Amino acid sequence: MLVIASVTPASRLALACAQQLQPVVAPAFRPASSSAQQAPQQRPPADQEPRIRVDVSLVSIIASVMDAHGRPVTELPKDAFEIYEEGRRQRIEIFEAETDMPLDLVLMVDTSLSVYKELPFIREAAAHFVRQVVRRDDRLAVYQFSDTVTQLNEFTGDVRELQSAVRRLEAGAGTSLYDAIYLGGRALEERPGGRRRVIVLLTDAGETTSRANFETARRAALRSETMIYTVLIRAVKSEAGRNTAGEHALVTVTDVTGGAMYTADNIAQLGGIFDQIDLELRTQYRLGYYPEPRPPARSFRNVELRVRRPGAAEGAEVLTVRHRRGYFTIGAIE
Known about the structure:
Layout: H1 10-19, E1 59-66, E2 81-85, E3 88-90, E4 94-96, E5 103-110, H2 119-133, E6 139-145, E7 149-151, H3 159-166, H4 177-189, E8 196-203, H5 214-223, E9 226-233, H6 244-257, E10 260-264, H7 270-281, E11 285-289, E12 300-307, E13 320-322, E14 326-328
Parallel strand pairs: 5-6, 5-8, 8-9, 9-10
Antiparallel strand pairs: 1-11, 1-13, 2-3, 2-12, 4-11, 6-7, 12-14
């Protein structure tokens, strides 16, 4: 059973659980000092009833550009970029280097039994990350997931409140990884427009108890235009002892959203990885275009962003660009 705190009155929540027709659309917050105080909640169904999504015409792309050593490349001009939709080049109408768009972040922490021994260190590393990443206009919510997914606080910019939340992380049993991605995406989809949406996912890639499947989770991330940054805790080096299928799934969903994948072979590496994520979020480009020709309704559009230093000769340093790989058009059925 998936646990999510909700602002819905108890009577309405009970009815929704009884009907089992619709998921809890936006995970919300109710203080929970222990698992015993958390009210029973509904987990997301694997198959969703279709609903109509309405998008604006402007397509906004957030991009990270890296050099051969994985360091952010800043101060590139507009003409260093080319955008293609379904193979057709688009005219760039909006360009911002080092965008100052505020962030809405979900810090989603795996607290299953497989990471139990590392939990004290994880709490402090996450508290460090919160202090470093949250700026004046940013908002962050902390979640934990094991056999359930629990939201520990509302979206807020209050660093002390957020650090208090991460220090309340509690160990559970199973691992609802796909539920965590699904519900994180749905929570961010309900946030205001004009903001970057990010999930920072800290996990060992186990998956045992989700109701949502991989495709449901992937589509939720894409619909909400969320970038996923995955920190993979890989205490076991041998493939025979790891969940390699879960790792491959995380690589796929991270890549398609334009985020990044980091591997921590030692829990002490977490602080440095969190610093890298913070640096990347502060050195991103924002590009926008109006699709030509007008795309059909109810479709998914593939997007490719290419980048090259202006005037660079053949064989010059190769730059790597990360960005979300597509979007749903107006009227797309979800």
